[in-house]
Write a structure and sequence with these properties.
heterotetramer, A: alpha/beta, 16 helices, globular, B: alpha/beta, Rossmann fold, 13 helices, binds cobalamin
């Protein structure tokens, strides 16, 4: 595995939506990061569809047909459908295979008939259970995850993604208690160890089948922080602490790429701009067209340097404007079209800057993901690129610096709660040992005691 | 950069592709489509009249129908072997995506007026496949969907009774008593008027009446809502109506069957029935 | 009444979102068209809420609170809530008053507490029934419409709008039969006569209460054409004919302004760019964030010169991301924020052009509403400004010219159906008499026969 | 224009206003809020310990509790007059928007451990207001919401039983038999796991069991879905849980009441209950 110790981009200004240093090509004429932005549509299977393989296959097929029809009706040159598998699809790998096959069949038909560029991104669920003695690395659940990935590959998926969950017991604890050390340990250390373990294997399977290994996300950790942080008036998690979690999340999601993931990285990885700045792989992001799924405070900003643009998730049901696969593909499709127009006219960087500046000072979580700041965090990470622990601290401290500078420049005001939790986190990080093994040893002891589900054996610690 | 400069830099198909143009086959005369050939009669004067319907030519259709009636052709035969064949071909081309709504409406006008001529000679209304009653929900002024339905039903050989818009439940009950319809359609475009459907169902039940199915559709109406009551089936496209009515007529389907087999009956993928 | 016979804008390039020649100010610090774009949220009352005045009042209040809370949570500086009244609210004017009062109370509280700029746009329903002998101009329904408007004014609405429906029986006939003459008569003549009648009265009421008379829309006619036209693969109404209806719709919606409407014009008036170019009043539009309500082929383009940005309509229910008043205000709020960033940075015209070019050649209906083309249609209209009939023909012919030029320049390709219906419409219009009274006489005869519900008496013809 | 130039042109509050900063009052010590003053005890050592809980100071709280126990203060009194008062004040400040979740979690940790000290002396578990059983739906790994609920319940004086995540309906039935809970909470974050709720309800009915209410909440769960079954009530915020439990305990409310009076019971506008 090759760790990143320098930036693939020479300057933040080189990054813009629709272009990645290392574009990806798949069948059905689909290219990603090669000069245009692809809309993504993602629909959660309807309640009850989990009851049998037949109903889940029908559900997946139907979502796909609806999306294809709307794509044609509004003239989209290309789109990607992502299917996030639910537990049943992964626990029963033949479901994963059958669903994939049904979806690919539909896409192929529409591609053949109309020439529309399409791809299926299949995302099996990480169904491993983090508990004491759960044998993260050998359990039947682990086997099923890998077998499902194999099934998706064999049945024609264009891209494979996953949301691994390593370290979440500890980061959950840290997020809810405002404990920055637990966040660092959970995301930066445990998450990175686990992601490496998983992706070494995933990349092997994908390569065997010549399917694109897409990417991972820190969803299970920094998105938990983001959702708990909520809106400006919410009071569950400090927005500065959520920003720190996100910065560390960048150091974490990079691991999949280091293992061979080629992008597009998962849409829910709000840390993706950091990873793109370091690695040059194409990324998917989601923001203002994912309001159906959740509220974030960077709905425009996060589009700044994306390669695919997603709606994240929506109930499968009817709106007045059509069924949700139709309606929400239209939403992401129209936004992608705007970006593509900007690319065509050479105004892509202007639009990127407008997207970015719309949210840059809306919230500290947005601030640090502005592409210039994401780049700074990237630089901090690669400076200690070889050591997941040290690069995580570097990311966290850079986050702190970025926010502090903006506060000092009077660009953003923080509440007392945000300022206090930021200060205390920075103090904590500054006091940590340089040596990762020392930190790990202490943390294993500390959180082994405090966090019921945390089992060091799951990380071979 | 100026607007024009920006525009000139664009490669259009990187932004939007007009798939309607992509999908369009070579121009072809309506009567040359194999599906139409199968439908059209070969004998005269039936063929000529059917073609006049196909080409939405009301004036000549009327003229030729009158002439044929004078020449002693049976009005029933003219209706069944010429007029209905013509409109059948029109519907087929509409479903195929070759013909458009105005074709259907105009051909329908030509057909309906020609039928009236035949009925004059016949001395009574001609037989139809059956009666369907159509209404717009109480409180709702949106009636275009319902008007389309009327046309599709008539083109499909049904007697379609138009109760108009903003129709009270009691009026629907009376109509059911009067016409004992094979099928009924209700249209509501608003969240706050689709609540008229359960009221209609209640009123029918109270009056001890039943219909095989009430198709409920229109802008704001959702399948999940329609399926909270009995006797109803969620309707999606106006042109589905005659197919639903046919299924009731020919295969004795009721509302429960229609709910289950909707896509099959209308013969296409229906997104709403897939969600 | 002053007819427009010249353009308020000197060149199309002078028009941009957020700025109107004649901005509007209302209470709670709200300004419209004065240098920023306001998001609008509109939510259809839930089924069952129509059962009593109490439940409708609660419904309206609740929608408003949800919207206010989300606005604060995401940091919107301003927003407008529009309530489109259902028939019961207008048929019972005390409902209109009570609902308005409840909504205004909420808005005022949030404005006082947080300084957020807010406004309530109340839109009573045009519940008059167009039928033979329905006495459009004196019926109880007519009285109730006016009484409801009065109630909304008295109870604190900031802006009054309405969607008048004059002429729709005839235009419905024309749209479904592809009869351009009926479309012209229904929209350009009957619609204009009726709108004038209604707005003379509405403006009086608004002025009495110092409430802003907002505007009207050709929704009942050109939107019917647009919805029937549907997507690219739909087959109910020719898209070129829908474009013609829209052009004539511009000549129609202008009438409200001529009677004293000050804007913002109603969001569903896709013809609003034409009206803005002529009159300089602020407009509301809706597009890519109205996918919940319907699908249009100009989701970005229509934002180009808007002053308020709306979601059109959505069920009142839950998404994963919150309730729909929250979710959809976030959608329009984030888009408005992007536009406001563009204004702040001086890049507003670039963004306007990107919006426009994204859809300009997606469909003929979009093409003619690109702000440069909307301006051309505006010019055609004012040239015959004094005569609603002649200016409608002028608009229609200009639409034809714009489309034909684009086809000849190979910028857009039409299907045979689109091309044929365009050609035949142009032929028809070219053959019409210059004299409006001649046209009216013939049309009254023709459509009096063909259209069951059309009663010339309703238009004093 | 360069990114920096663009940025420099912006007047920030024309784009986004940080209402959290707008809303923030002057800094004030936690104990000085009038609502808190009313709750806090005045006598020592209760006041000191309550303040330690209020300030999330586990170490000193434990120390002072131990000391007071040694000095002969009754463990029951310490729990009721010091520890519960402290946590009560914390909850109040959380609801008021002054305190944040981590405050609550840390104060909760301090309170819980101190209670354990008291229980050692007491020789048994202290009395709680009642027992609530909490689970995450079968097939669902998302447990943060449930974990918050546990903390809020414990801070509210309830015994909260944690069944964990991915809990089968049968396991829930057993827990009801074992604990006969006052209230139960289920959490599901996915459309395809919220289907576990009707299964739980069915299983309980089959076993002839009943609970006053099962609060069902979590990311993907919708009120309309929850209300398609009996015994359930849709739950919105974790901190609503003790209030719902209180309403059952004190006012004998059942699931039907909770559905109707949710907003009143939790004492705030709840958007989901307004749609
Ligand atoms: C045109 C229109 C009008 C016209 C209606 C003209 C007419 N003759 O019908 C006018 C201007 C009168 C009007 C008025 C109002 N309208 Co209006 N209107 C529309 C609009 C733009 C298009 C409707 C339409 O004609 N669609 C085309 C037809 C063909 O569609 P359809 O009827 O649904 O039928 C199709 C299918 O549903 C199907 N179908 C229908 N029934 C059945 C049955 C069966 C069995 C089957 C198989 C199929 C089927 O067949 C058709 C397709 O083939 C819609 C927007 C929209 N997205 O729909 C708003 C809309 C319906 N209106 C709306 C509103 C709010 C109003 C007003 C209350 C606004 C106001 N305050 O003034 C008023 C009503 C006042 C009153 N009297 O109560 C809202 C409703 C929101 C809600 N509450 O749910 C909508 C959704 C617009 C919006 N704001 O989003 N409106
Ligand atoms: C964090 C997270 C994860 C983490 C979970 C970590 C953990 N320990 O819980 C991980 C990474 C494991 C995960 C995995 C998956 N996830 Co996930 N996840 C999320 C995420 C981002 C946040 C969830 C969260 O923690 N929210 C914060 C907590 C506090 O909220 P909450 O539990 O809802 O509780 C609040 C209220 O609901 C309330 N509440 C809850 N219950 C009750 C009860 C009562 C009585 C009351 C009063 C209140 C109440 O209290 C809380 C507020 O105070 C959501 C996104 C979202 N929008 O929610 C997706 C989400 C839930 N996940 C989703 C999916 C699809 C998955 C996966 C299947 C993806 C995949 N293919 O890998 C896998 C699951 C695999 C499996 N084993 O089945 C989807 C579900 C879509 C659907 N089908 O419906 C979501 C919605 C994301 C999306 N795509 O949009 N996920």
């Amino acid at each position: 595995m090759k760790r990143f110790t320098k930036m693939e981009y020479e300057s933040p200004d080189d990054m813009v939506f629709g272009f990645a240093k290392h574009p990806v090509k798949t069948k059905y004429d689909m290219e990603i990061g090669a000069g245009y932005v692809n809309p993504i549509i993602k629909v959660a299977p309807k309640e009850g569809s989990e009851n049998s393989m037949e109903s889940m296959v029908a559900e997946c097929r139907n979502i796909t047909i609806s999306a294809c029809q709307r794509a044609l009706n509004i003239g989209l040159p290309s789109f990607i459908i992502e299917q996030e598998h639910i537990a049943q699809q992964t626990a029963n790998p033949e479901w994963a295979g059958a669903c994939t096959q049904a979806q690919v069949e539909v896409l192929e038909k529409f591609h053949d008939e109309y020439g529309i560029k399409v791809a299926l991104k299949a995302t099996p669920a990480d169904i491993r259970d983090e508990e004491k003695g759960s044998n993260y690395r050998t359990s039947e659940q682990y086997q099923n995850v890998m077998e499902s990935i194999e099934q998706c590959c064999e049945n024609g998926a264009s891209i494979i993604c996953i949301e691994t969950t390593g370290g979440k017991s500890v980061s959950d604890y840290g997020i809810s208690r405002g404990d920055p050390r637990a966040i660092l340990f959970g995301i930066g250390v445990l998450g990175s160890i686990d992601m490496e373990f998983m992706w070494e294997e995933i990349v092997k399977i994908c390569n065997k089948h010549k399917v694109i290994p897409g990417g991972d996300t820190n969803c299970s950790q920094s998105n938990t922080a983001m959702f708990l942080a909520g809106g400006l008036l919410d009071k569950d998690c400090s927005h500065t602490l959520a920003a720190i979690a996100r910065g560390i999340g960048g150091a974490n999601s990079l691991v999949a790429v280091e293992c061979g993931a080629k992008g597009p990285l998962k849409d829910c990885g709000y840390e993706n701009p950091i990873v793109k700045s370091i690695s040059g792989v194409p990324i998917a992001t989601e923001g203002k067209n994912a309001v159906c799924a959740h509220s974030d405070l960077m709905g425009n900003l996060i589009a700044g340097i994306c390669d695919c643009w997603s709606n994240e998730s929506v109930y499968h049901r009817e709106e007045m404007g059509g069924t949700t696969p139709e309606v929400w593909l239209q939403a992401t499709g129209f936004e992608a079209a705007l970006m593509n127009t900007a690319i065509q006219t050479g105004e892509d960087k202007t639009l990127r800057d407008l997207y970015t500046l719309t949210d840059k000072y809306r919230d500290p979580q947005a601030l640090i993901l502005a592409y210039d700041n994401a780049y700074r965090i990237g630089e901090a990470i690669v400076e200690y690129g070889d050591d997941p622990y040290q690069r995580s601290i570097a990311a966290a401290l850079e986050v702190g610096k970025i926010i502090t500078e903006a506060v000092e420049a009077k660009k953003i005001q923080l509440t007392r709660f945000e300022q206090d939790s930021l200060n205390s986190a920075i103090r904590t990080f500054n006091k940590l040992p340089d040596d990762s093994s020392k930190f790990i040893k202490r943390s294993v002891r500390r959180y082994g005691r405090k966090v019921e589900d945390f089992d060091p054996k799951n990380y071979e610690l | 950069m100026s607007y024009k400069d920006l525009e000139d830099k664009i490669t259009q198909d990187k932004i939007a592709i007009r798939y309607n143009v992509v999908a369009e086959g070579a121009a072809m005369k309506a009567e040359d489509y194999p599906e139409v050939k199968e439908i059209l009669p070969t004998e005269e004067p039936f063929r000529k009249i059917a073609l006049e319907i196909l080409y939405e030519d009301k004036i000549n259709a009327l003229k030729d129908v009158k002439k044929s009636l004078e020449e002693g052709y049976s009005p029933i035969e003219l209706i069944n072997n010429a007029l209905m064949k013509g409109i059948d071909a029109v519907s087929t081309l509409y479903t195929k995506g070759v013909y458009f709504l105005p074709d259907l409406m105009l051909a329908g006008d030509a057909m309906m007026e020609s039928v009236k001529e035949c009925e004059k000679v016949l001395g009574r209304k001609s037989d139809t496949k059956g009666t369907v009653v159509c209404f717009v929900a109480e409180g709702d002024p949106h009636d275009i969907g319902k008007n389309l339905i009327l046309m599709f039903l008539r083109a499909g050989g049904f007697e379609a009774i138009d109760l108009g818009r903003d129709v009270a439940a009691q009026r629907v009950v009376e109509a059911v008593k009067e016409y004992d319809p094979l099928f009924m359609t209700g249209t509501a475009l608003m969240t706050t008027t689709m609540t008229a459907f359960p009221k209609v169902v209640e009123a029918l039940k109270e009056a001890g009446l039943e219909v095989p199915a009430i198709g409920c559709g229109g802008g704001a109406v959702r399948k999940d809502y329609v399926e909270t009551m009995d006797m109803t089936v969620y309707g999606v496209e106006a042109y589905h109506t005659p197919k639903l009515a046919d299924a009731i007529l020919t295969d004795n389907k009721n509302w429960e069957d229609l709910r289950k087999e909707y896509s099959d009956i209308v013969g296409e993928f229906v997104s709403e029935y897939a969600s």
